[in-house]
Structures are given as C-alpha cells and as structure tokens.
Design a protein that fits this description.
about 30% helix, 6-stranded mixed beta sheet, 13 strands, alpha/beta, metal ion binding, DUF34/NIF3_sf, Udp-n-acetylmuramoylalanyl-d-glutamate--2,6- Diaminopimelate Ligase, Chain: A, domain 1, 5-stranded mixed beta sheet, single chain, DUF34/NIF3, GTP cyclohydrolase 1 type 2 homolog
C-alpha cells in the first residue's frame, strides 16, 4: 500500500518530538521529501551498505543512528555516507532518523524497565535513575551482562574520595544506578558526586573513565550496540499499532570478539 512520507514523519513527531533531541543531534528527515510516495518501510539500527543494496525501490528507511551527521562538502560516492546516499537516491528511497529524542521518549525506559528489569526506575534528565539493593560492582556488572545476553561487559571502580572515612565503608557496594543507552559517559558530570553510585552506559573512553573514577563514580560499559539494538523491535511495534507493515533489517554488531582460554 502506498503512503506519503509525511504520514510517517508526523507519526514519529507525535510519539517522539524531534525538537527534544540534543542540540548536536541530526534526527529527523535525513533524505527525501515530505511529498514522496513510498510503498515499503524498513526499520534498522543504522543503515549499512548491505542493507542499502538490498532495499526495494520506493522504501522508507527508519533508523536510530542518523545517516548524515556532519556537513557534507562533497558527494564522493565511494565514501561514507555518500556511498549510501547514492544507493538510496537511485532507488527513490528516503530516510528518517530518531536518535536522542527517541532515547528520551522510549529507548532508555525500555532498556531499563524491560531488559534490565528495574521497573521502579524513573526518568531523570537524560538518565533512568533508581536505587537497588546494595550489591558489589562486580555482581552488578554480571547481572547486566546476563540480562543483555552480552558476550562481556567491562566495569570501573570509583575511587575512595573520602579517604577511608566511615563514609567510604563498603566502597564496592553499589546502591544508586543511572542508566543511559548508547554513548553516555560524557553526561557523567550531571550525576551527583557521591560514593556507591554507578553509571551504566556504552562506549566509555579511557580518559572519561579516569575522570569518573577520580570523582568516585563507578562505571559499567554495556556496549553501544547491546544497549540500542532494541530500537527496531520497539519501532516496528509502533508502526504496526498505527496500521503500517514494516520489515526489520538486521544490523548486526560490527565488532567480533576473540578470547584466550586456558
């Protein structure tokens, strides 16, 4: 069944307003025209060359990660993202992205409530926040790994900022948790500086980890892909409830893992 791109854009706007995205983000209509008439919908975490090549003509692609993030000074069709743009244009395809606006409206809550199973956590700024039964950082990391069905997670123990006073007893015991999907360690400065607190996010850089550690904040890196892969099932359900059929294009984790075993 044919539909106007504007219909889907308006649906996106109604459930996750684009003006709620972060100032640096590029959510919204990345490619196409509101007047485009399309016949297929594909939902994916992000567009890859393989997905683009397998699209049917007149397809609307809905992604979490925007295709165009930085200003283009040239269209070099052998380089990203122009190589993907050229494929979409040849097939009369369009692309809408819902990124940080969707994190705030749906993805953070879904990850925290449904996957990590902390249903009592509440939205606070960009984070989901809640208190848990005190547990060791290592045990908390293991719980996260199991619930995400991840191959591994890494964690960083916050330093004792109170220098072995009574306040710092059971330093490894985590009581308060902040969760943000994707790459959220740059937001750690928004978290109150106190012990027994952990931020769970992905893509933690070494220097950001060292800053958080020095401030007494513990971290668990659950992986970027592992925390955001649920976008496709959430959005497919939204479209189905609105009467649209959508195909999920499986964007696999681009990272492979190897390990040494005894």
């Amino acid at each position: 069944m044919a539909f106007k791109l504007k219909e889907i854009y308006d649906l996106c706007e109604s459930i996750s307003p684009f003006d709620t995205q972060e100032s640096w983000d590029k959510s919204g209509l990345n490619l196409g025209s509101f007047d485009d008439e399309l016949t297929h919908i594909v939902v994916c975490l992000e567009l890859t060359l393989d997905i683009a090549r397998n699209l049917q003509p007149n397809t609307l692609v809905i992604t979490h990660h925007p295709l165009i993030f930085t200003p283009l000074t040239q269209i070099h069709t052998q380089s990203y993202p122009s190589n993907l743009i050229s494929v979409l244009l040849r097939k009369n395809c369009a692309l809408i992205s819902l990124h940080t606006n969707f994190d705030k409206s749906h993805l953070n809550a879904y990850l925290t409530h449904k996957i990590l199973q902390w249903e009592h956590f509440v939205a606070q700024d960009f984070f989901m926040y809640g208190e848990i039964k005190p547990t060791s950082l290592e045990n908390l990391a293991l719980q996260v790994c199991q619930k995400l069905q991840a191959k591994a997670v890494s964690y960083i123990q916050g330093d004792d900022i109170y220098e072995n006073t009574q306040e710092s007893s059971s330093l490894d015991s985590i009581k308060e948790v902040y969760v943000v999907c994707g790459s959220g360690c740059s937001l750690s400065s928004r978290i109150p500086q106190k012990l027994h607190t952990c931020l769970i996010t992905g893509d933690i850089k070494h220097h950001d980890a060292m800053i958080a550690k020095s401030n007494g904040l513990s971290l668990i890196d659950m992986g970027h892909y592992e925390s955001e892969k649920y976008f496709v099932e959430i959005f497919q359900s939204i479209l189905q409830n609105a009467g649209y059929n959508a195909i999920i294009a499986d964007c696999k984790n681009p990272f492979y893992f190897c390990s040494i075993t005894d």
